[in-house]
Amino acid sequence: MISDDIEEILFTPERLKTRVQEIASEINEEYEGKSLLLVGILKGCMYFMADLIRALKVPLAIDFMSISNYGFSTQKTGVVRILKDLEKPIENQHILIVEDVVDTGLTLGYLLKILKERSPASLRVCALLDKPVYRIMRVPVDYRGFELDRRFVVGYGLDYQERYRHFPFICVLKKEICPL
Ligand code: IMP
Fold this sequence. Notes:
This protein is of the alpha/beta class. The protein is built from 3 helices and 9 strands. It has a 6-stranded mixed β-sheet with strand order 4-3-2-5-6-7, sandwiched between helices. Strand 2, helix 2 (46-55) and strand 3 (60-69) form a beta-alpha-beta unit. Helix 1 packs across helix 2.
């Protein structure tokens, strides 16, 4: 059974739901009178984005980007490749990036740089998880679900080697399964 791989559940579906509602309330307040374009970063954002947009009351549209990192966590270079870009220009629009995890900040730093060059009216970041201990590049996280320490987590869209995304909670895997 896949559940045998779990060491500990950190965030239950109920806790995730409550936190997403809280973030959505903040966004609803701060963007009142404006319309938003949410840019989800695939694939990790899938559950978070789906729950977040259903709790938002401001007019909105969504789009997605998919990014691949060259190099692996220990030797991250900040060089990323765009696998899927936005469908339309974002000039003069209010953009909210929806990320799963901000770790070193290199992916987000790169994304912010290229999106800023496209002259949006505003550009902010909403991340489900923030791991400030690993930060290499200073990046703004305007809305944050939870702060995490050094643990590598899966579920609620997050994967380890493309597995475990479908868990409705966020958990840590056993060391023999995931040594990260
Ligand atoms: P960074 O901020 O450029 O180091 O990379 C962040 C990306 O690393 C995230 O978008 C995730 O895809 C991945 N990542 C970092 N920590 C975790 C984790 O605990 N579980 C799953 N993916 C993670």
